[in-house]
Design a protein that fits this description.
By secondary structure, the protein is an alpha/beta fold. The protein has 33 helices and 13 strands.
């Protein structure tokens, strides 16, 4: 399956964006975009298209979640499918027309692959790459865990196993602990059983408790009734104590209002009736208070203005008139008007401008005529100069060639670099048993004659040999284990024989045989009875003793026989394994012999297949270096030929210029040109520049002279026009002076001063008129105020009113009015307070009317209410304490009755018992599930190692060597550490305690560090490096090699799916990044690779690594569809 296209209809900040992925042999697509361009959004879009948009997606920040929509076109084995995806609970699959599709419509494309497996196997970004590298480092010396985690994409496998063990131990372990759930539930079960046994009923005690509870209820009821009666009496006394002061205050306010009503009717009513008139006179009095002083200040100012006006008129030579209203009006008719004065001022300004412009025009005309004469003289004095066209063409050709000498130097340096690179590559190919020819040419020819295998065929041979080697390694391990077991059986047999005197049937038969043979010899006469009698007795007693011992320890003999049989089985198994190992070694030797013969046929060095892979990569690099060297030499030769042609043409043109032409062109400075191209160009440019400067100067002078000649007619017209303006201005000037009454031959300074004095006289006369008008207005307002006050005095019948003291009468009326208003406000406040007190009295009276309240207060002694209230409160406190005591005793009697009767205690205890039993059953089920999961996970890793370790390690080691550019030759396992640790692990396992907790601790303590193999990286020089000795970047490359190897193995038996990679090469240098891109491109021939990055330089690196095989897509930002190349 592959993506042909993807459409982000409404998703994240994208709207209507589409990407196309054309099909190629190398299905590699590089998507580059700057930060915030949407690269992470696009990566999430691929996942959501295949497996659904989550309901809580983070991509709904621009569009509502219900409007999110994606589209794509898939192609592959099932055909082609155009579909879309919306955010819906049922998956949201739609077809190209927007119609719903079945939820399993993608099953034919994805098969049994779910979202989690797809992310692990077909998704890798920089964050997960670093996380996997750290997890691989934490796995450390457990090669099974390293391979399983890296190949399957599952990280922190050891952490998962430890977490399962901790969770199982938290549920149950042989050692009792309150923190373990099983023992906590058992404690609750014991407590419930005890409570259930205690919940029993005793009849006699129950009767006594019931009688006591009834008596306490009756006593508590009587106490409550007594307490309620006292509370009612206290409330009644408190009510009377509250309303007595209120009634006294009400009577006091009623008397006060009666007294105030008569006083108001006597004095304040007339003033309040004319309140508006009094307040109006008050405001007028305050406003007119300063009018008298203002009239006096106006008279003084008018006198000053009259003096100033007279002085100005005398300066103008005009008669001084009276300053009354008639004289001012006459003066206004004699002075020039404001428009006339402004016209004279305008003519003064225009006159200055006209005279200045006329003088400037005449001066400019004279200057241009003088400059024209000077330019004509300089043009006549300029010499003529010219340069031939051949020199110009030669110089243009040299300029077109550019910095050819710099290019030539660079080409020479590049050739030296490529030659050194080729020699370095050839030196790197030298290994023990491989000696390339010393001459680079012969070495390249030697490399070119080789016929290496294609990569798949070579990988197959490498995997075949590694399978043989893995089989031999496995058999070696089993032989070592069988030898250890045989030694253990021999040691057990020997220890048993030393500790026990067991006799087997064979021992008895042997002793009896020795006895019988000696007896037969004596009977036959071959042995003398006299000489052998003692020996026969010894043999007879020995055979009898062995028979007795055998009968006495039949069990020890059986145990001895069992140990002997076990030793024989172990010995046979060891011999069988040694035979299998010999057969495997012979198969490996045959494979190596066939390999060596195949290498000779193809003219290849005889190296082990993994080493030959790295060596062939160096061979390819050397051949490429040779091709680059040849290209550099060809480029250098072409540049040298071009340089000679350009330099020869330029030198010939310079020689021709020296032979002909005038003196300046033929001998520029009297120096011979330098033999270099740069010197010849400098000499030619000097000739051209000198001739150009001379010609340019002559043309500039001619252009300047023509420009000045074109300006002269205009300057002459301007001078004539300005002379006409000057005559017209003089006529207007004389006319204006005549109308203003000024001499026509007056100078400009005199006229300007006279106009200023006329303006001052006009302003002073206006100020005098304004002072007259202001004085008349204030006198009129004062007269109106007096008439209004006199009319109000008549309405108030004020017989004491004096027109001369109007202000004092108004002040007295205002004071009396304010006093009347204050009295009215006091009466209103008293009425409001009386209403509030009356309402409060009725509220405190609890529904009684005022007459009823007054009658109730008159019938009692108010002064004695305080003492009565205190006595009632004391009695109430005593009743409350008695009631509280009886309530406690009543509750105690009720609890005693409930305790004796049992109630629901037994039911609660039974419920707690059943709950504890259910918890224990659940804990047992959970423990069994966790224990099974833990053992299954351990078995999965072991089976994975048995099935995949050989091919995976072989391919991963090859990829690791290529990703590190040969710095590391591959991967290997330290089997010595395995054997030693396995022996120590068995010793610990035999000493471990039984049960689930001991098994878990045995796995963590005795097996994990002991039985695990140690994965090392093998350097090119043969040295080994543990995982924690690798740099972060190299460890990332190892993890990537394992992931690619696992992906290739998966693709061998499963349908391909698109692989999404995101910025994998952050910790890579450029050379290793190129190697990584090439490995991904190799995978891209089997499945689609979509590589996302925001590093722009990755595009250049990818183009270098994958020339002609790369499809680049640039994300522009947040607007517009992306350009596709």
């Amino acid at each position: 399956m592959r993506f042909d296209a993807i459409e982000l209809v409404r998703y994240g900040h994208f709207s209507g964006h589409g990407l196309r992925f054309p099909r190629r042999d190398c299905d590699f697509h590089l998507i580059v975009g700057r930060n915030e361009a949407g690269k992470s959004t696009l990566r999430q879009a691929f996942h959501d298209l295949l497996f659904g948009i989550p309901m809580d997606t983070a991509m709904s920040f621009l569009y509502p979640g219900t409007e999110l929509e994606l589209g794509a076109v898939l192609s592959g084995g099932p055909g082609e499918l155009a579909f879309g995806r919306r955010r819906r609970r049922n998956g949201g699959l739609i077809d190209a027309a927007g119609e719903p599709l079945a939820a399993d419509a993608l099953h034919a494309w994805l098969g049994e692959v779910n979202a989690a497996f797809y992310e692990r196997m077909f998704g890798l970004d920089h964050r997960r790459l670093e996380r996997g590298s750290r997890a691989m480092l934490q796995a450390g010396d457990n090669v099974d865990s390293v391979l399983f985690q890296a190949a399957s994409g599952v990280s922190a496998l050891n952490g998962v196993l430890d977490a399962l063990g901790r969770e199982a131990t938290a549920l149950w372990a042989p050692r009792r602990s309150r923190d373990r759930a099983w023992y906590a539930a058992a404690d609750r079960l014991a407590e419930a059983d005890a409570a259930l046994k205690a919940a029993t009923v005793r009849p006699a005690a129950w009767v006594d408790a019931q009688r006591e509870s009834r008596l306490q209820d009756e006593a508590f009821a009587r106490a409550q009734a007594e307490h309620a009666g006292l509370v009612a009496q206290v409330q009644a006394v408190e009510r009377l104590r509250r309303i007595a002061p209120l009634l006294a205050q009400i009577r006091r306010y009623e008397a006060l209002l009666d007294d105030a009503g008569g006083a108001d009717a006597a004095g304040g009513a007339p003033l309040r009736a004319h309140e508006a008139d009094i307040l109006a006179l008050k405001d007028a009095r305050l406003r007119l208070a300063d009018h008298g002083a203002g009239i006096e200040r106006g008279a003084s100012r008018m006198e000053l203005l009259r003096s100033q006006l007279g002085q100005v008129l005398r300066q103008l030579g005009r008669p001084v008139l009276d300053a009354d209203h008639g004289g001012l009006e006459s003066l206004a008719g004699q002075l020039p008007s404001l428009p006339l004065r402004q016209e004279i001022a305008q003519l003064l300004r225009e006159g200055r401008d006209v005279l200045a412009q006329g003088e400037a025009a005449e001066r400019a005309l004279d200057e241009r005529r003088a400059e024209l004469a000077r330019l004509r003289a300089e043009i006549d004095a300029q010499p003529a100069a010219a340069v031939g066209q051949p020199l110009r063409r030669a110089l243009e050709a040299a300029a077109a060639a550019g910095s050819i000498e710099t290019q030539l130097d660079g080409a020479h340096r590049n050739g030296e670099r490529e030659r050194a690179a080729l020699e370095r590559r050839l030196d790197e190919l030298a290994q023990p048993g491989v000696a390339p020819p010393a001459d680079p040419g012969e070495a390249v020819a030697w490399l070119a004659r080789m016929e290496p295998w294609q990569t798949p065929a070579l990988n197959e041979r490498v995997q075949r040999r590694q399978q043989f080697q893995a089989e031999i390694d496995t058999l070696d391990k089993r032989v070592r284990e069988a030898g250890i077991e045989q030694q253990a059986a021999e040691l057990a047999l020997e220890q048993f024989r030393r500790s026990r005197q067991a006799v087997s049937r064979d021992d008895i038969f042997a002793a009896r045989g020795d006895r019988d043979r000696l007896w037969q010899a004596i009977a036959q006469g071959s042995a003398s009875l006299e000489t052998e009698a003692a020996r026969f007795g010894v043999l007879l007693r020995h055979a009898d003793t062995l028979a007795d011992l055998h009968l006495q320890a039949v069990g020890d003999a059986a145990r001895l026989q069992s140990l002997q049989h076990e030793l024989e089985r172990r010995t046979a198994a060891l011999e069988g394994l040694r035979g299998s190992r010999s057969a495997a070694a012979q198969a490996l030797a045959v494979c190596d012999a066939e390999w060596a013969q195949a290498c000779r046929r193809r003219h290849l060095p005889i190296l082990p297949p993994p080493d030959l892979q790295g060596w062939l990569a160096g061979r390819d690099a050397a051949l490429m270096a040779h091709e680059r060297l040849q290209a550099a030499r060809s480029e250098t030769a072409a540049l040298e030929r071009r340089h000679e042609a350009v330099l020869g043409g330029l030198m010939a043109a310079l020689a021709a210029e020296r032979r002909g032409g005038d003196g300046m062109a033929a001998d520029p400075g009297g120096e011979e040109p330098a033999p270099t191209l740069a010197g010849a160009q400098e000499c030619a440019r000097a000739l051209l520049e000198r001739a150009g400067r001379a010609e340019a100067r002559r043309q500039a002078l001619a252009e300047q002279s023509a420009r000045i000649e074109s300006l002269l007619p205009g300057l002459e017209k301007d001078a004539e026009r300005l002379a006409g303006h000057r005559s017209q201005w003089r006529r207007r000037w004389r006319d204006a002076l005549l109308r203003a009454g000024l001499p026509q031959d007056s100078e400009a300074a005199f006229v300007e001063a006279a106009v200023a004095l006329l303006a001052d006289a006009d302003e002073l006369a206006g100020q005098l008129r304004e002072c007259h008008a202001q004085r008349a207005r204030m006198e009129s307002e004062l007269e109106g105020f007096g008439r209004a006050a006199q009319a109000l005095a008549l309405r108030l019948r004020d017989a004491d009113f004096d027109p001369a003291a109007v202000h004092e009468h108004v002040r007295r009326w205002v004071l009396r009015l304010e006093q009347a208003q204050a009295a009215e406000r006091s009466r209103e406040e008293a009425r409001q307070r009386l209403a509030e007190l009356s309402e409060r009295l009725l509220q405190e009276g609890e529904g009684r009317s005022r007459p009823q309240i007054e009658a109730e207060l008159e019938s009692i002694d108010v002064a004695a209410l305080a003492g009565r209230a205190e006595a009632l409160r004391t009695a109430l406190q005593h009743a409350a304490s008695v009631s509280s005591r009886l309530a406690v005793e009543r509750e105690q009697a009720r609890k005693a009755l409930e305790a004796i009767s049992g109630g629901d205690t037994a039911a609660h205890a039974a419920a707690r018992r059943q709950e504890a039993l259910a918890d224990m059953a659940d804990i047992a089920e959970r423990y069994v599930r966790l224990y099974t999961e833990q053992r299954l996970l351990e078995r999965v890793t072991e089976r994975y190692r048995e099935r995949r370790q050989g091919p995976l390690l072989a391919r991963a080691g090859q990829l690791f060597s290529e990703l590190t550019l040969g710095a590391h030759a591959g991967l290997e396992i330290d089997h010595a550490a395995v054997s030693e640790a396995r022996t120590a692990g068995r010793g610990q396992a035999r000493r471990a305690a039984s049960g689930a907790e001991s098994a878990a601790e045995g796995r963590r303590g005795g097996v994990s560090p002991g039985e695990a193999a140690v994965l090392h990286a093998r350097r090119a020089d043969g040295g080994v490096v543990p995982l924690d000795g690798l740099s972060d970047g190299t460890r990332d490359q190892l993890y990537l090699a394992l992931r690619i190897a696992a992906l290739e193995l998966y693709l061998d038996h499963a349908a391909p799916l698109p692989f999404i990679a995101d910025d994998l090469f952050v910790n890579y240098d450029d050379q290793r990044a190129v190697a990584g891109l090439r490995k991904l491109a190799a995978v891209a021939r089997r499945t689609q690779i979509i590589f996302l990055t925001h590093h722009a330089h990755m595009v250049e690196l990818a183009r270098e690594a994958l020339a002609g095989q790369l499809h680049v897509i640039e994300l522009p930002g947040q607007a517009g569809p992306p350009p596709v190349r």
